[in-house]
TrEMBL record:
Keywords: Metal-binding, Zinc, Zinc-finger. GO terms for molecular function: zinc ion binding. This is C2H2-type domain-containing protein. It comes from Parascedosporium putredinis. Residues 86-110 form the C2H2-type domain. InterPro entries: Znf_C2H2_type (IPR013087).
Length: 165
């Protein structure tokens, strides 16, 4: 992991919209899924899924969800205070600040898994593309090497080609 870090690799992957540099495909994907790119305000976790799904008709990494209509939005109010902390009404995790609870609720934590590992021996599920790419970059399931992940995701971002492994 250290050899694939910013120390050795630098910021070699640029955002196709704002040209901000990232060390790995995970960073770029997270940037786009969070809607953090100032030049691509319409991008979000849902929009990225729609784009990936259109380029992955065989479902190599994306799940073919028949009943998916987008992410559900949750929000907490002062009524989430349980006397000791702000409590998530879904998982009952506690937070010191209402803002922290709302960050938790706006994260993909309680959303549907949209992706899976392409390794048929692994098939782990992931709620966002950045998490799935991070799994592949870590080489934990042995499906592909870090550099191959970077090339594959670079091709997905820079072209209209279908996704293939």
């Amino acid at each position: 992991m250290h050899l694939n870090s910013r120390v050795h690799k630098g910021d070699q992957i640029g955002c196709p919209f704002c040209e901000k540099g990232f060390t790995a495909a995970t960073g770029l994907t997270h940037h786009l899924e969070k809607g953090s790119c100032p030049n691509a305000p319409g991008l979000s976790r849902d929009k990225v899924y729609e784009i990936v799904r259109s380029r992955d008709p065989q479902g190599a990494i994306s799940k073919n969800l028949l009943g998916w209509y987008g992410s559900v939005e949750y929000a907490a109010t002062e009524r989430s205070w349980n006397g000791d902390a702000y409590e998530c009404y879904i998982c009952h995790r506690e937070f010191n600040q209402l803002n922290s609870l709302n960050q938790h609720l706006s994260s993909p934590t309680h959303q549907q898994s949209l992706y899976h590992c392409p390794n048929t021996a692994c098939r782990m599920d992931f709620k966002n593309l950045a998490a799935m790419i991070n799994h592949l970059e870590s080489e934990s399931c042995g499906f592909m090497r870090f550099d191959a992940v970077q090339r594959t995701m670079g091709n997905l971002i820079s072209s209209n080609r279908l996704l293939s492994f």
